[in-house]
Amino acid sequence: MGIRIALAGNPNCGKTTLFNALTGSNQFVGNWPGVTVEYKEGKYKGDKEVTIVDLPGIYSLSPYTLEEVVSRNYLIDEKPDAIINVIDGTNLERNLYLTTQIVELGIPVVIAINMMDVVEKNGDKIYAKKLSEEIGVPVIEISALKNRGLKEIVDAAVKAGKEANPQSPKHRFDGSVEHALAHIEELCLHNIDDENVQRWYSIKLFERDEKIQEKLGLSSDVIEHIEKDIKSCEKEMDDDSESIITGERYNYIGTIINGCVKKAAKGLTTSDKIDQIVTNRFLALPIFAVVMFIVYYVSVTTVGSWATDWANDGVFGDGWHLFAIGSKAYTEAADEYTANQLIVDGYDLIVEETGAEPTGEFEYPVEDEETAAVEYEKATLDDYEAAKAYVESNEEPDPANYGVWIPGIPVFVEAGLDAINCNDVVKGLILDGIVAGVGAVLGFVPQILVLFIFLAFLEACGYMARVAFIMDRIFRKFGLSGKSFIPMLIGTGCGIPGIMASRTIENDRDRKMTIMTTTFIPCGAKLPFIAMVAGAIFGGAAWVAPSAYFLGIFAIITSGIMLKKTKMFAGDPAPFVMELPAYHWPTVGNVLRSMWERGWSFIKKAGTIILLSTIVVWFCTFFGVVDGAFTMLEEDQIDHSILAAIGKALAWIFIPLGFGDWEATVASITGLVAKENIVGTLAIIYGASGDVYETMRSAFTNASGFAFLAFNLLCAPCFAAMGAIKREMNNTKWFWRAIGYQCGFAWVIGLIIYQVGKVFTGEGFTFGTIFGLAAICCLIYGLVRKDKYNK
Amino acid sequence: MRTLKDVNVGETVNVTKLNGEGAVKRRIMDMGITKGVEIYVRKIAPLGDPVEITVRGYELSVRKADAEMIVVE
Question: pTM of the prediction?
């Protein structure tokens, strides 16, 4: 028969390190049913019959936080054979508070005093035997980090589990409390066999724990009766029942702890010294800025962007040069060839259009690949001759001739499909649907992993708690946590790791709010689109790009304030009392493991939605009806596609926003695959009838153009980011709430910009302006209305 | 009535009473801030809020709004 052992303890007590040390790679990580709280289970390395369950880090077994409810439900309902209560030896007093509650559950407990290496280094002394006598359970000194006492603790837990003879808690409350507890037990708990469990329930009922009242299905009569007992006790003790119990537990710990611990004379610890500098009044913000810069620079600008480019353009693109050897030489050669080719093409174009060769200096178009902007450059006839000679005497450079060229997966797959004469539909499905979809999932993984190394490090070393400490004042005004800063910062690079970074926020509401608002910040993929709108519609005005960022920040702030007051974010106000753990150097193994767990959960949970939606959009883009027959389309036949039909059907939604034509609608839809696709789609659609930018300028006014920009920046992010949202919300309802809110908010902002913008761009006051003003009023109402759900 | 919010950095005080109720109060008490406990105010965050305190031998960050519930002497 297998034995199940639960690990329980405070956050930062080294529980995860112990769990990793005990189970090695035999782990299963998931979620507790229906909630975002993580569930971890593993087999003990030394004995596969022993299963170890890692409970969330908790301070108490109160009914107020998700982690605590999950933990206590597991302990009461699933009844593991034994509990290892992990305790931070450097902070016995507060850690033992949870212990006093755990020993009341009627499950055998053994205590593991962790971080003994640090305790000894500090010169402190813990008398384990004395503590064991006081509490009435085995106490073993361990150090999970140094692999000390691990076998002993598991052996002790297995032994306790097999004996199945749970301790009776030695702690007794004040006389009048015990009196009330006895009454409660007699009144409604006598049918529970286990005396310990009886006592546990009676304490919870004494605390007026509504979740337990519900669970026991007590009638209102009984509850009223209990209430009388509680009231008389409260009157006697002059405090409310919960405070009486909590206070008594801490008092009890106070009485036993003096005999069990001897603290060395206290100087400043290393951690204290670090903290004096790191959260110093004057240095804190500069240091914070430097740390954030490093995180951003490495995980977004440099390593992260190389990793993403490599994964997207290399592995899931044409290919890449091994170790980048030859990459530079190839780029230079290719650039030179392209520059010459452009001159020759420009010359040919003039010949084609005018029927005559240019006689002197002529202009030729140069298109920017990212933004589809076209610029004209001048060339002389001599330039043309030189370019022509170059193009004729050189072949187009082939990357395979430089260094070690590794073709991308699509190239391999295409070659394979060609070899078996695969038909175009299947080939398209596999290449543009499936391979591109898998690429969209995996392309972001390297960057995510880079970021997760940082996050794991910052969390494990203790700085993450300080980030919340430093930034709390600003962010809590918008219903966010100080830790929301990191998701938002990373979100300027890419929303996917940004959303994933919200994992570090403990508070459920803060986290959900952060997930919902992070993608309002323009990410890297939105930049080409912003540049395109700026160039095509606003003549390259410099204010467009910054305005996109201001719009993002505005959206986060207003959303935070409005959402915080809605019913879905209502609930008991959670106070921000946060432990600032001592700084310590994390182990490489734990950092890497955390990185991998989170990265893998992205692939697993976000992958499906990304893959499926990419395939659906591919199908809608490349299939349609031409001349009465349903067929596969070429790229430039997008106006015949199913997507265009959908665009035409949905375009009316955007009429109030000024861009109610199918072109803009289709571009917005393809933007869901990846935001930079908006540029490509618009280039195809508008490019069919001449210059892309000119056609686009004629299709939009200033007001509708900016509304179009705003809508696409704020609405639902790309599928990959939606996948991340789905994974982090871990709840379908909340996922749709987030996407629905983002789209709705984007629509309202677009409406305001277009309808009110028209007044300022010379179109004057129209009927629609009233709606624009009404929308502003609604927004203001949402911001200032009284918060009736929270205090 | 003096609360934790009014305590200066570097001061040590004793908790005499906790106002408030429900989840907020319970959470504060769960973290070890109970009647009679000694609190040392270590520092204030660079932006003026929250405050960092030492209680029962460890460091805790408390918002001023919540600190207002903690009556001290």
Answer: 0.81
